[in-house]
Amino acid sequence: VTGGTPGALNSSVSEIENIVLSEIFYNPPGENFESIEFIELYNANSGPVNLGGCSFTQGIEFIFPSVIVQSGDYLVITRDVAAFINIFGIPAFQWTSGELGNALDTLEMNDVLGNIIDFVPYQSTQPWDTLAGGHGHSLELIAPALNNTSPENWMASNTFNTVLNGIDSVWCSPYAGFSIAPPQADFSADTTTIFASQTVTFNSLSTGEINFYAWSFSGGTPDSTNETIPHITYHIPGTYNVSLFISGPYGEDTETKTGYITVLPIPDPPIADFEAGQTTLYVGDSIYFHDLSINTPTSWEWTFEGALPGSSSVQNPTNIKYTTAGNFDVSLTVSNFSGQNQRIKENYIIVLDTTRYAVLITEIMYNPPETDTDSLEFVELYNNEDHPVKLEGYYFKGFDYT
Which of 164, 196, 290, 335 has the fewest CB atoms within 10 Å, i.e. is most exposed? Predict the structure, then answer.
């Protein structure tokens, strides 16, 4: 059965509350369809309920078997389950005896201790909605938290379901929701991980008609409030729960998020340090930089003299290209909640020229008149340009020298 599952009777008998008579189809239209009369129940509790042993003591006769109805679920009982399934195509329980009065009736449901769970005295005349009196509509409770002994809290169903005998329309919604949904609690935070003494702003995402908010913040200051958008400060490191209770004319709800806020210890100020993938390169080469800072920085600001791009805010920049020869500084400023620190490495990157200059080999002493060491060997170079040429990075083939 939708909304109900078999289960063992509770080992200890206890009073049952918040099981609501939520829909009554007491006068189906046309002839020979009285057998599809039904009563719908709704579990308005926050947890499952076993209805085993509960019973109807007025209106009809029925003792519930051991059946568990989950929170927010429905259960339907009908006069003739075969006829009900034939028309609606969904399962139900069949009551033992009795029929629903077409003009008026009183339905009463008791728990195993004899306590009244719910009680509805309906009529087919005003102030009750008269469309339910043989015109094809069921009676539906507007919202589960309303007093269902009051006719103003009921209305004829506006949910079309089927047609009987090709002419009689049926308006009902067994196992379906209310005309006005009860409120649903939910919330978010602008951040869920902070350092001690920081503040979190919470925002209700709840739906439905709400006229009361009650927040609870373990570890927070303040630890409770009725504001809709509270600002809460956390001073002690740890992981904390947050709970929001809401209520309105059509019900109430609670949302608890376990371990929702993480508060970290205040860190030491960071100390900046870094390294480059290489420090000597040629014009047009690209390199990467690696952050070596300590004490958990949360932001990075790099400056690359002579490079493209000339700055970066990522932790480990890549593809930093140097387009001119020279010696260039690199700086890194790191920050966290406790402060910032800067490291500058002067002339850290050496970029060598790749231009071909008119520098000539003009003399070679390859075999000096000495024995063994040849220590007097030399090569003479001549700059045939009209300007000085920096030879740093140039090298010979045939002997090792750069």
Answer: 290
DSSP code of 133?
Answer: T
Q: How many CB atoms lie within 10 A of CB 339?
A: 13
Q: Write the pLDDT tens digit of every residue in 159-205.
A: 999 999 899 999 999 998 777 778 999 999 999 999 999 999 999 99
Which pLDDT belongs to residue 57?
Answer: 96
Tell me how far apart the alpha carbons of residues 201 and 211 are, in angstroms, rounded to a whole number: 20
| Residues facing residue 234 across a β-bridge | 198, 220
What are the domain boundaries of the chain?
Answer: 4-171, 187-264, 274-352, 356-402
Instruction: Please say whether the dihedral angle defined by the alpha carbons of residues 132, 138, 142 and 147, taken in this order, is positive or negative.
Output: positive
d(CA 391, CA 402): 9
Tokens representing 315 are 């932790």
Q: What is the C-alpha to C-alpha distance for residues 40 and 292, in angstroms, rounded to an integer?
A: 67
For residue 372, give the DSSP letter: S
Distances (CA, A) of 23 to 77, 143, 216, 350: 11, 11, 35, 83
Q: Say which residues have a Cβ less than 8 Å from residue 348's Cβ, sequence separation at least 6.
A: 276, 279, 328, 329, 330
Q: How far apart are CA 62 and CA 98, in angstroms?
A: 9
pTM here? 0.56
CATH superfamily, with its number, for domain 4-171: Lamin Tail domain (2.60.40.1260)
Q: Rounded distance, CA 142 to CA 122, Å?
A: 15
- For position 131, what pLDDT does the model report? 97
